[in-house]
């Protein structure tokens, strides 16, 4: 379970991160990251559509993704909004593969953020 202050709940936050944030796509998932200037803990949200499978499968995928993200929450910059969208292949992927795909996507997003952080300094 993610800490309460790190959970994204409002649809506006999801939309803001997806529309205005950077995107890193992988076969199993897509991650959207928007870093804002706020001094708040990073917030994370998950999108697991019906294309992934029935409710039981979607909930299992969401739980597994939450577990992966919880262990990496410290890597996100303060004030960031991260949305992780599961693709249909996530339903049959092993946890290790989910974690590896997320790590690759997150690394890409953080690399793109680094030059922007330096420009604003």
From TrEMBL:
The protein's role, per its UniProt record: RNaseP catalyzes the removal of the 5'-leader sequence from pre-tRNA to produce the mature 5'-terminus. It can also cleave other RNA substrates such as 4.5S RNA. The protein component plays an auxiliary but essential role in vivo by binding to the 5'-leader sequence and broadening the substrate specificity of the ribozyme.
Reaction equation(s) it catalyzes: Endonucleolytic cleavage of RNA, removing 5'-extranucleotides from tRNA precursor
Keywords, ordered alphabetically: Endonuclease, Hydrolase, Nuclease, RNA-binding, tRNA processing
Subunit structure: Consists of a catalytic RNA component (M1 or rnpB) and a protein subunit.
PANTHER family: RIBONUCLEASE P PROTEIN COMPONENT
One cellular component term from this protein's GO annotations in UniProt: ribonuclease P complex
Family of this protein: Belongs to the RnpA family.
Entry EC number(s): 3.1.26.5
NCBIfam families: rnpA
An example Gene Ontology molecular-function term: tRNA binding
Keyword Hydrolase: yes
Entry protein name: Ribonuclease P protein component
The species this protein was found in: Bailinhaonella thermotolerans
GO annotation, biological process: tRNA 5'-leader removal
Record Pfam families: Ribonuclease_P
Xref: Gene3D superfamilies: 3.30.230.10
Keyword tRNA processing attributed: yes
């Amino acid at each position: 379970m993610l800490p309460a202050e790190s959970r994204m709940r409002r649809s506006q936050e999801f939309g803001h991160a997806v529309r205005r944030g950077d995107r890193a796509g992988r076969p199993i998932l897509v991650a959207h990251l928007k870093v804002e200037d706020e001094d708040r803990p990073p917030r994370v949200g998950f999108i697991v559509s019906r294309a992934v499978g029935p409710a039981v499968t979607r909930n299992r995928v969401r739980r597994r993704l939450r577990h992966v993200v919880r262990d990496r929450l410290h890597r996100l910059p303060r004030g960031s909004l991260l949305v992780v969208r599961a693709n249909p292949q996530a339903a049959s992927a092993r946890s290790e593969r989910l974690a590896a795909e997320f790590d690759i996507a997150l690394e890409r997003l953080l690399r793109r953020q680094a030059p922007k952080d330096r420009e604003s300094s």
